[in-house]
Amino acid sequence: MSELTISSTNWLAISLQNGAAMVFNLNDTQQWQYLKPETITNDKPKEATGTKQKTQDNDDDNTSDLNRNLIKFTPDGQKLAINGQNKQIYIYIPSNNDKTYWQLQRIITVIKRASAFDLTNEFLLIADKSGDVYKTDLSNNTNLILTPDDCMMGHLSMLLDIAFVRTNDNQPFILTADRDEKIRLSHYPNAYNIQGYCLGHTEFVSHVKLIDQNHILSASGDGTLRLWHLPDCVELNVFDSKIFTSSAKQIFYEQSSNIDDNQSLSINHSIWKMDITSTTSDVFIALSIYASRTHSIYLTTLSNLKNSNNEQRKITFNSTHGTIIDYCFSSKNSTDLYILFDSNTLLKVNIISILSCNKNEYFEENNKSISTILAREEFNLINNINSLEIIFKQLFKSRGDPGDSSYYKRKNQRIEEQEEKRRKKQSKKQVPVNENV
To answer: InterPro entries in the record, alphabetically (predicted)?
Structure first.
């Protein structure tokens, strides 16, 4: 599924197919570039066959269809990481060429497909479907093939999100969220040293977002948002998604669409997507619940949730825009939200304007140039929402009793593999050294 990201330098990037992407300069949308997918041959980048290229994945678990088109900038906006379809991650840097704005720096080949990653200005953290976390420095310009020896840490289940955190006392940590309801806070770089767990969710944790150096907001399949304090992993507040459906004022973008939210099933209230932006005045939250994920986004602030002010808004988009693919805030301190639809439409809405809107319709002029470029035949957005729904339900399903479910089989196999690695490392340490007398 295509994903959307915006850099601190105001470049917008959209993932397409097979590791391809589009980048646009939001300061001048006539400056744009199509980043073609590439493969490694003899350790040198070579252009691949684009969207016609077929890839294979030997991953053996029941989530082998999961392949997020991850795309993300470093905080300084000087590097762009793109998750390819062939277990390769492409790192791009700004180019000095007047017509080529971004150029490939290196290709990183992973063991299993990445399920999430995070970047600092210095390094890349890669989380994969098996629960392992890898790290590679971004200063290196050579291609890299990761090996099991490069693994920093491991979980017993698939990782769904990862973030690097440096608390206000300057302690560095790695924050990981998995399909087994846990959020783990591990020391960096010694990730085997676990600081603690944020426990409370009853279903998989799909998102963890940094509010500031000591606070995070998590979203889960259990339909709750939870506010945590770090590094003591203390839960400060729990917010149920049913608050949004019961109290949100509905606003229609351009014209209304009849969206019937079936509230009989708990999965309908599970969090489908979430993004936040922090300003000096408040923390603004945009999220989708499963029941209305295709056309609607709920908007609120952290202070509204804490104070139970019932100042939420549900913005429902005209069905002519198509299905929502992805959305994100333009920066960590901006209230502009960009929404990408499968009709090749990109909209920008201002959250403050919507939250303060007393009408049931909302209008805003948007720059159409990006949507026009995306509509060209050679560029194909991915919106495999049906596949994501299958995966989402697989994550949501009950695990059953120990020994009966794939979860426990996977967990036991994982324990055995880690124990085997430990024994091998221990045996290498105990090999006697022959000294010549």
So the answer is: Trm82, WD40/YVTN_repeat-like_dom_sf, WD40_repeat_dom_sf, WD40_rpt
